[in-house]
Amino acid sequence: MTSLIITMLLLSTAYYVFEIDKNVADNPTAVDYAFLATKLSTLNTIVSALANVSNGGERAILMANLNELSSAIRSHSYDAECLLLFTPLDSPQYQDGIETSWGSSGLGISSAYVGFSLNVTGLSVSYYSEFETNVTAGLNIDGSFTGSGSEKSVNATCRVYDEKGLALASDITLFYQNETSGAWISLSPSNSLNITDYGDGTYFMSFNVNTQNVLNLSAHVHDSRGIFVMANVTCSMA
Amino acid sequence: MRFLTDNRGQIRVIEAFFASVLLLSALAMIPWETHVGSSNDEVLQSVAQRTLITLDSDGTMSKLIENGSWTTLRQCVQSLLSPAIWFNLTIFDKNMNPVNGIQICSGSLLNEKTVATEYVCASQNSNYRIYVVRLQLSNVN
After folding, report:
1. Quick one: which of B68, B45, B39 has its CA closest to B119?
2. Residue B26 lies in a domain
3. Cα–chain-centroid distance for residue A23?
4. What's B119's domain CATH number?
5. Do A48 and B94 lie within an 8 Å CB cutoff?
6. Cβ neighbours of residue B34 under 8 Å, at least 6 residues apart?
7. Structural domain includes residue B86
8. Angstroms from B58 CA to nearest CA on chain A
9. Are A118 and A131 within 8 A, CB to CB?
10. Which candidate, A115, A56, A116, A53, places its Cα nearest to that of A82?
11. In a domain? residue B28
12. Are the C-beta atoms of residues A156 and A170 closer than 8 Å to each other?
């Protein structure tokens, strides 16, 4: 009886170890590579789609690009079957995985959020992972003006963000509105526009405009990845 | 009465239990698979994979491909590899048509034995493109 118990104990332990061992990746280096390579590709794909949509493209481009990527990854995985599934986030903020919130309170956001599952099955590699990829371009602008006559001196600060924190912009275009519901006017050299780049995603701008008491400011920004984001703000008297 | 005071059976069970614990402890310390060390091919494969991932970590690779900056791309790969490694980089579009107009390599191949790694490179450009990048490596010596 004792021998039987000990034998059963040994066998069950061996079986347990065998089962655990099956779930552990056989080739961790190959798994790391497959995972990292796929994650980078998904990130680049979402950046591309968000750059497209934020510049006026259709939201459906995200799904189309991800389908293309999934198909390419599957057809170029020779030593394993690599299945990439994705679910763009649908929430009050995100539709089809994309949010473009370009508000009048000085804050603008262009963002994309997609959940992924990667299932790699092969002779030397078996792996399953779920991960999310978020790409965001954010803009915060605030400003104030001084001057008693019709010509006002305006100081404004723009802060550009990506999903990790402050980020560099590739271009900033400023517009102003000197009457409520009036036309947006692009700032020109005649406005003595001066932009100071602090090198960390913060931009200080000073310029002169003709207005009485109303001054709305609009900043249009492309981040270094080409993602467009804009925000409007009503400037206050300093 | 004699049966109740005889503890030999219990001692046997305890003994067997300790023996099994000892045995399992010994088994746990033995690795299930014996690795004899990475072969040269595996090392090269790993180097190729790391090189491609580093190149694409901030979207640089697709930008260089889209701009046709083959010389810069060659210099980037060269800077990431040891001088003792020969390389040849070939870029294909998604239909496997070669994209690079000139050869991106570090000279002529001295060792017949090469290792190749492929990487699916997605562009960050709003005009989306997928490239398949093949990096072949070989030890010069």
Report:
1. B45
2. no
3. 33
4. 3.30.1140
5. no
6. none
7. yes
8. 9
9. yes
10. A116
11. no
12. no
Query: What pTM value is reported for the model?
Result: 0.79
A47 touches chain B (CB under 8 A): yes
- The SS3 assignment for A110 reads strand
Give the three-state DSSP class for B119.
strand
Evaluate the CA torsion angle B23, B28, B31, B33 in order and state its sign: positive
Flag if B124 and A44 touch (Cβ within 8 Å).
Answer: yes
> Chain A partners of B24 at a C-beta cutoff of 8 Å?
10, 13
- Is the CB of residue A75 less than 8 Å from the CB of residue A103? no
Of residues A229, A235, A238, A236, the one with CA closest to residue A107: A229
Helix axes B60-67 and B40-56, enclosed angle (nearest 10):
80
User: Which residue in the block uniquely carries the two structure tokens 């490596």?
Assistant: B137
pLDDT in tens, B69-110: 999 999 999 999 998 999 999 999 988 999 998 999 988 877
Do B53 and A3 make contact, defined as CB atoms within 8 angstroms? no
**pLDDT tens across A177-228, in order?**
988 788 899 988 888 999 999 999 999 999 999 887 789 999 999 999 999 9
Q: For A159-165, which contacts have Cβ atoms below 8 Å and span 24 or more sequence positions?
A: A159/A201, A159/A202, A159/A203, A160/A201, A160/A203, A160/A221, A160/A223, A160/A229, A161/A136, A161/A137, A161/A201, A162/A135, A162/A136, A162/A137, A162/A138, A162/A223, A162/A225, A163/A111, A163/A134, A163/A135, A163/A136, A165/A201
Domains and CATH numbers, chain A: 2-136 (no CATH), 139-237 (2.60.40.1930)
ipTM over 0.90: no
The total number of structural domains in chain B stands at 1
Expressed as residue numbers, the domain containing B132 is 40-139
User: d(Cα B137, Cα B98) in Å, to the nearest integer?
Assistant: 18
Cα distance from B2 to chain A (closest Cα, Å)? 22
